[in-house]
Amino acid sequence: MDLLTKFIDTYPVFLKGMLLTFQLTIVAVFIAIFIGLFFAFLKISKMKVLEWIADIYIFLVRGTPLVVQIFIFYFGLTALDISQFWSVVLGLAFHNGAYIAEIFRGSIQSIDKGQMEAGRSLGMTAGLAMRRIILPQAFRRAMPPLGNQFIIALKDSSLASFIGMYELFNVATTYGSNEYDYMSYLLIVAVYYLVLVLIFSILVNMVEKRMASSD
Amino acid sequence: MSESYMIKVEKLNKSFGDLHVLKDINITVKESDVVCLIGASGSGKSTLLRCLNFLELKDSGNIIFEGEKVEKETHDLNKVREKVGMVFQHFHLFPHMTVLENVMEAPLHVKRQPKDQVKKDAQELLKKVGLSDKENVYPSKLSGGQKQRVAIARALAMKPDIMLFDEPTSALDPELVGEVLSTMKELALEGMTMVVVTHEMGFAREVADWAVYMHDGRIVEVGHPEDLFNSPREQRTKNFLDSVL
Questions:
Q1: Taking the domain B5-243, which CATH number applies?
Q2: CA distance B206 to chain A (A)
Q3: Where in the numbering of this chain does the ABC transporter domain appear (chain B) (predicted)?
């Protein structure tokens, strides 16, 4: 029962941490979607230079640990008077953008070429056909891996604790060290993460169901 | 239009890499003509059709549409395509839109016509192809024949001057072919200019004003379907007809 008492005693602080974790993730993923879409377009542009730019970006993100990226963004951006919150958000967005770019590239390329041709045959420009015909279908197909990536991003946001953001994980380790009881608070924070992931999963499922209404 | 022809092709050549698919094609389609392109697969008939609405770009030769020589450097091909309807073998309906939305899409977003008018026109077209009761259904719920009729309505919604059909019944179950062919027949009777790539010799015989037999990227023989099918002049045409009839 010791654990339950600790849980009840600390929940106001944990909820604050959870809110920060939630904010970091939502804002970062929102930006990452635009970054991902942009680099996905570069990848399918069929212009060598643009493809290289996307390849280099993806190589950099995949080739270095996220914690290194977060520190680089933190020291780099706070030197430019950008807040701690935004430096972490941009670091996470930069990181997730690469994975989301690959998700979008795959889903766009998975749409039958006949769809683009049908659009073009009706007089659509390539851009209009992309926007009206291809992207809505590609987004739908991207939802399951995208939902997965959201959950990864949520858990990865725990790395923001390394630069002193007072999000969930940092709350847990701070309590742990103050009270010489890491184990209890790590178990408690695991529950908070599970709840957050559960909420995310349900949200993603709802969006997926909604988009699949035409099948 | 200064001349009576709708579309005229002169010395058209097209290659895919080393493969020379169309060799010096000449063909003239007059207004209200119904032309059937026949030939074995790989003979270039689909490629020819796709060159006519510039989904494939020619290597050399001329394509003269409604009296104007169309070149990608000087013409907005999107504008030209608005006047050239196309129906595909595999329908290519937009799966994320209802039947009605499929038909409304291009007039609404390409021509930017007012929604009320577009909707009324689309409903009229769906009535014409016999699918009024399917307006709010998604394509995945339709049979192949119904899909193809929606595809025809979708192309007609742009009020094209010519309709191209690329093997419109080849992907259909045999019992669904008839409904699509009768829709096309109706269209022909209304005076629509049509170029149809088909294996339906019965349709060609009944509806086409003339037929074109293609072999190996060339036009081998052109004639009235009755003459072409009953007394082909070329041995190659005869061989082909023997194998399909």
A1: 3.40.50.300
A2: 28
A3: 7-241
pTM: 0.86
Could you report the per-residue pLDDT of A87-123, keeping only the tens digit for each?
A: 999 999 999 999 999 999 999 999 999 999 999 999 9
In the three-class reduction of DSSP (H, G, I as helix; E, B as strand; rest coil), residue B220 is classed as strand
**Cβ B88–A122 below 8 Å, yes or no?**
no
In this prediction, residues A185-189 reach a mean pLDDT of: 93
The C-alpha of A184 sits at a distance from chain B's nearest C-alpha, in angstroms, of 49
Residue A214 Cα, gap to closest chain B Cα (Å): 6
**Encoded tokens for B205:** 């015989």
B84 touches chain A (CB under 8 A): yes
Model pLDDT for residues B193-223, shown as the tens digit of each residue: 999 999 888 889 989 999 999 999 999 999 9
Q: B158 vs A122: CB contact, 8 Å cut-off?
A: yes
Specify whether the CB–CB gap between B29 and B18 falls below 8 A: no
Contacting B with CB below 8 Å, chain A residues are: 112, 114-115, 117-118, 120-125, 128, 132-133, 136-137, 140, 214-215
User: Tokens in use for A104?
Assistant: 């979008």
Three-class HEC string of chain A: CHHHHHHHHHHHHHHHHHHHHHHHHHHHHHHHHHHHHHHHHHHCCCCHHHHHHHHHHHHHHHHCCHHHHHHHHHHHHHCCCCCHHHHHHHHHHHHHHHHHHHHHHHHHHCCCHHHHHHHHHCCCCHHHHHHHHHHHHHHHHHHHHHHHHHHHHHHHHHHHHHHCCCCHHHHHHHHHHHCCCHHHHHHHHHHHHHHHHHHHHHHHHHHHHHHHHHC
**Token pair belonging to B207:** 């509806």
Q: Classify A81 in phi/psi space as left (phi over 0), alpha (psi -120 to 50) or beta.
A: left
Domain ranges of chain B: 5-243
- This model of the complex carries an ipTM of 0.91
- Closest-CA residue of chain B to A139: B96
| Cα-based distances in Å from A177 to A31, A131, A160, A183, B27 | 34, 52, 18, 10, 86
Which domains occur in chain A, in start order?
2-213 (1.10.3720.10)
Contact yes or no for B81 and A117 at CB 8 A: no
Query: On the CB side of A153, how many CA atoms lie within 13 Å of its CA?
Result: 33
